Structures are given as C-alpha cells and as structure tokens.
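FORM 7B: Structural annotation worksheet

SECTION A. Query
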Amino acid sequence: MERTPTGTPVGVDDPYDHAGRCDHLTSDGCCRFALERTGDNGEQRLPRGRPSAGDDAAFAAERRAEDYACVAADEDAEWRDCPHYRSTTDGRECRRCGLDEVRMAHDDARPLLEEHHLSYGSAGGGDEGDPAHEITVALCRWCHAKVHEGWARIDDDAGPDAEALAAREERRSREQAEFGFRTAAERDDRD
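SECTION B. Predicted structure
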C-alpha cells in the first residue's frame, strides 16, 4: 500500500486508480498549465511574474507546438504520462462512505470533509519510487482517521459512522433553522 512521506498508509495500492481528470485540463482538451506559461509570441510567461519550481518552459513550448493538446489526449497515453498532472478533490462528498459536506457560513466549525493525499507532488519529478503527481480525494474526518490508522482502505464498501451522520444532521438542522421566518419582535425577544 502507498504511504505518506511520514510512513502512514494512504489507503490505496495505486493512486491513479482513484485519480480524476487533470486540474489543468480545459473543457476543450487543452493544457491550462502550458497556456498560462506561454505568451502570444511563444516565449515563456511566468504566472504572476514570479518563477516557481513548477514552471517548465520546455513542456510549455512542446504543448504550444501541439496546439496545447493535453498529453493524455493521445489514445495511447495515461494521466501518469504527463509531468504536470494534478488531480485535487472538489470536497463535496467522502470518497469512502459517501457522507456529503454541509458547510455553515460564518461558522468556524471544523469541516466534515478533509482533503486526503493519495500521492504527493514533487517539483523535480520525484526520485525512483517517489510519486511525482499530487492526487487528492475528499474523506470525512472519521474515514480519514481510519485510513491513516491503517485498518481501512479508500475502496472499502463502507457507510458513514453514526457520529458522522449525527454531525451532518445537526448542521442541516441549524441550516434549516436559519431559513425559518421570525418576526422582528421574536428576534429581539420583545412582547
């Protein structure tokens, strides 16, 4: 099983089995990573004018020569073939048990869902055995703890814990209460 840099398990054997589309892929099949790094004249353009470890002028030039087509757009290619592939979660539902997020506006309570790294990106492409792509999924706090403790896997057939369901329903109840109508007198506790 894959492990974090500190040695705890991530809950999968192959992160790419759980990876989604690349964050850099546009709706028309272009590579946003290369588009953002190439000027109109074909020269490298750095995002916000600052160089970073993730800038790759040669890759941007190669993609420009291919009309910015995504590396994985080739029928023989896979996501792992792209040096800048990244798949991060949208954080709407737990990947393991299906618990959906309920966020409360103006409330600093801990979110029900957390970002869980299946692999960690490295700017230099990674050494042999080190993952070179950042791949994350959303896990509820309860599943996240189980995965890192080593006795649960992402692809287990699991349902939400009772405690997780109770936390979600408590938030939904507060959310519904905010939609209720109260007169000004009721809000101010006047008679």
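SECTION C. Observations
Strands lie at 86-87, 113-119, 134-140. The first strand starts at residue 86 and ends at 87.

SECTION D. Sign-off
Analyst initials: ____
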